[in-house]
Design the sequence.
């Protein structure tokens, strides 16, 4: 498991506005996004949670990997 990553919108008028609107709605409704991502071809999917945040410069998402049942081990 890794630390926290930051997700930013792709530069461009429509993309930035849509991303900002999504962040605004997530904050207003107090919701997060749960997603599966594949970082590279041929690697396993990871389960992540995306937390919205608005910094002074722009809206962003914090991406945190969460463990799945396959990753848990008994010691």
Sequence:
């Amino acid at each position: 498991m890794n630390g926290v990553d930051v997700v930013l919108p792709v530069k461009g008028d429509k993309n930035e506005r849509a991303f900002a609107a999504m962040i605004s709605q997530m904050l207003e409704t107090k919701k997060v996004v749960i997603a599966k991502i594949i970082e590279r071809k041929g690697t396993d999917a990871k389960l992540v949670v995306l937390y919205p945040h608005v910094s002074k410069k722009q809206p962003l998402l914090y991406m945190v990997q969460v463990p799945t049942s396959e990753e848990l081990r008994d010691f």
Observations:
- The mean pLDDT is 87.
